[in-house]
Task: inverse folding
């Protein structure tokens, strides 16, 4: 089953990608971590996402810290919450 008309990632990919940040930060428990590692070994699409996210995290850590205006922060957080709720992967 595909995620949508604009995505080539299927449900097995989406389940793993939902935990990708935690995987990178080594916050995923061992059995799930091994499942993600095995999936990455044979899924080129997910490896691209993993590589891109790692680069993004590295760039963000190098960026200077700024305090955006509070109104901007509120609007960005509202959009992120709405998008996360919309993109949440299906339950296993
Ligand atoms: Zn995948």
Result:
């Amino acid at each position: 089953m595909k995620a949508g008309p604009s995505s080539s990632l299927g449900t097995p990919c989406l389940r793993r990608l939902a935990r990708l940040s935690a995987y990178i930060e080594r916050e995923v428990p061992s059995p799930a971590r091994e499942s993600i590692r095995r999936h990455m070994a044979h899924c080129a699409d997910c490896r691209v996402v993993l590589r891109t996210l790692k680069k993004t995290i590295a760039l963000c850590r190098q960026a200077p810290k700024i305090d955006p205006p509070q109104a901007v922060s509120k609007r960005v957080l509202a959009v992120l919450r709405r998008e996360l709720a919309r993109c949440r992967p299906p339950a296993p």
